[in-house]
Amino acid sequence: MLRKFLLLILGMLCLLPAYAQDASVERGRVTFTPECSRCHLPAEFDGRLRARWIGRSGAEFYQQIRSTMPAETPGSLINDEYYDLAAFLLQSGNVNIEGGNISVADLESLKINPGIAIAVQADADSTPWTHLNGTVKSTRYSELDQINASNVADLAIAWSLDTGPFGPSPETLSVSTPLMVNGRVYATVGATRNVVALDAGSGQLLWMWRPDDGTRFDTAPRKGSGKGLSYYNSGGEEVIFTITPGYYLVALNAKTGDPLPSFGAGGFIDLQQGLRLGQGRSDLDIGISFPPLVVEDVVIAGAAHEVGMRPLSASNVKGDIRGFDARTGALLWTFKTIPERGQASYETWLNGSAEYTGNAGVWSMMSADPERGVVYLPVESATGDRYGAARPGDNLFASSTVALDDKTGDMKWYYQTTHHDIWDWDTPSAPMVIDLSNGRPAVVQTLK
Q1: Which one is the CATH code of 20-109: 3.40.630.30, 1.10.760.10, 1.10.8.1310, 3.30.700.10?
Q2: Which of 172, 222, 230, 261 has the fewest CB atoms within 10 Å, measured from its CB?
Q3: Does domain 152-160+175-444 have CATH number 2.40.10.170?
Q4: How far is CA 2 from CA 12, 114, 154, in A?
């Protein structure tokens, strides 16, 4: 009887999956492409590891990937695939894995150390970086030439800021792009999206402002430190604009960090007010992690929602885009990315689907051409990202680049890059306003 029992146990063990003893960088790369590349680039893990993972263990890194990836179905891969992904992402982040393979035991005990130094070029007279993408035109280019191919290997850390103490708990990832104006660095830090001002030369903390969104933070769809801030100068009065996780537009004095009493209600505008809500929905699925765009004297607020791979309903709040007076906070205009009945392009939403469909916000950064008085919107897809039977038609202005008059919000032109988007091929980046080599002006919209 005992012999039969032991044979039964051995037979059951033979049916269990045989996990690999080694994690493979190459297998991880193959897995990364279909499962992760729609949201991530391998190159970004250099910055991620340096920001939050130095000195932490490979086991913790593996568990983080397993519990968060892929975004819409975390934990859906097998353990082997997550170990391979961990090896690939560590290698992508400049953690050397010799030969492209590492034992699972060694991976778990590994202490992460990319060994990369960063430096800050700080000079009160240097070229400023006043927008998330460099300029309001989103050119992402600087003419500074102090750092070049001949000396980049000699860069060393000038100073660093520990963002761990900011927010109710340490944030696992910070993707904020700092601004640098008049010798000061401005950035968002911490899970509650605090705003800090630092001396660019020494890293000294000059001031810190902490939002208090209350219960709105708990239900916010786009928590986290956010992507950055916006800078505005009105006759010598310097202002920093941010949007909190709870969806307030806030104007701060750039020299003190105090909310400006002349803007909105004591420096605040409640962006949840005036929205077109989802039919039959009691929740309010809207927020944004990107900063507003300031062009001339108008500050423009975007809109974002929960990841739309598996939406709760075909109905959702609409991602309307609004322009406010940058000095007073007065609402100047609203552009309805999903048209109302009687408006142009309403007919591209068949069966009345424009009435209840939501999303179609602008979750990425906008750009503008002040000389022409135009703001450019990279509009996302509508509810939901992978299923469109509830919204037949071309669905304008979802998954489009839209040009508006920056002072009135009137549409000048649009180009829809994906008709009736059911592939999550929305516009993920700011349109670049450039002049071609022949002098012809152009707007370049990069896509997925």
Answers
A1: 1.10.760.10
A2: 261
A3: no
A4: 16, 54, 69
Residue 334 CB-density burial (10 A; 0-12 exposed, 13-18 middle, 19+ buried): middle
Please answer whether residues 396 and 410 qualify as being in contact, where contact means their C-beta atoms are separated by less than 8 angstroms.
Answer: no
Average pLDDT of the chain, as a whole number: 89
Amino acid at 46: D
Q: How many CB atoms within 10 Å of residue 243?
A: 29
Domain ranges of the chain: 20-109, 152-160+175-444
Segment 292-335, tens digit of pLDDT: 999 999 999 999 999 889 999 999 999 999 999 999 999 999 99
What is the model's pTM?
0.75
Sign (positive or negative) of CA dihedral 344, 349, 355, 356: negative
What percent of the chain clears pLDDT 70, i.e. is strictly above it? 92
Tell me whether domains 20-109 and 152-160+175-444 share a fold: no
What distance in Å separates the CA atoms of residue 23 and residue 25, rounded to the nearest whole number?
A: 7
**Alpha-carbon torsion 189, 427, 250, 257, what sign?**
positive
SS3 label, residue 286? coil
Return contacts of 72-75, CB within 8 angstroms, 24+ apart: 72/307, 72/309, 72/310
Best CA proximity match to 431, nearest among 381, 374, 385: 374
d(CA 394, CA 424): 14
**Residues 160 and 119: beta-carbon distance below 8 Å:** no
pLDDT mean over 87-115: 83
